[in-house]
């Protein structure tokens, strides 16, 4: 039988609430698409946006290519280390064309990783 303080009713209501929460979360996971899939699609779309051959950097140089900026308004070619270091979040680094005429990315390059802190400042005590 029920406890005079109402503890049984609390447990039943709690269990019912948890069941409703579980069903809600299940429905939510089915209806909301995964973010990882959308991001990979964006990355693939960005890769498809070809840089015109006339704007590829010359051998030994790289170029920062800013998204949603016309080709004629893109930054000038520079050395690769400077381009990688100064790349803004809405841009990518274009490497010189390979033998087949396509822009080649060197092995081991990870263009979207955060940069290491190279400053000599000590952290606050």
Fold topology:
Blueprint: H1 7-31, H2 35-48, E1 63-66, H3 80-86, E2 91-94
Antiparallel strand pairs: 1-2
Characteristics:
2 strands, two-stranded antiparallel sheet, mainly alpha, 3 helices, 125 residues, elongated, 37% helix, single chain
Number of helices: 3
Number of strands: 2
- The pLDDT mean sits at 74
Q: Strands of the largest sheet, in order across it?
A: 1-2
The level of helicity is: 25-40%
**Alpha-carbon Rg, integer:** 27 Å
Query: Roughly how many Å apart are the termini?
Result: 62 Å
The outline comes out as elongated
Architecture overview:
The protein is mainly α and 125 residues long. It has a domain of 45 residues. The chain has a two-stranded antiparallel ribbon with strand order 1-2. The chain is elongated and about 70 Å long. The N and C termini lie far apart (62 Å). The model has no long low-confidence stretch (mean pLDDT 74).
């Amino acid at each position: 039988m029920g406890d005079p303080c109402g503890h049984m009713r609390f447990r039943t209501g709690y269990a019912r609430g948890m069941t409703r929460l579980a069903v809600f979360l299940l429905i939510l996971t089915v209806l909301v698409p995964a973010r990882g899939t959308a991001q990979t699609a964006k990355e693939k779309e960005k890769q498809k946006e070809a840089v015109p051959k006339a704007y590829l950097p010359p051998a030994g140089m790289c170029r920062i290519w800013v998204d949603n900026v016309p080709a004629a308004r893109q930054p000038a070619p520079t050395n690769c280390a400077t381009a990688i270091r100064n790349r803004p979040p809405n841009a990518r680094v274009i490497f010189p064309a390979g033998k087949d005429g396509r822009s080649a990315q060197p092995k081991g390059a990870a263009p979207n990783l955060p940069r290491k802190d190279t400053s000599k400042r000590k952290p606050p005590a």
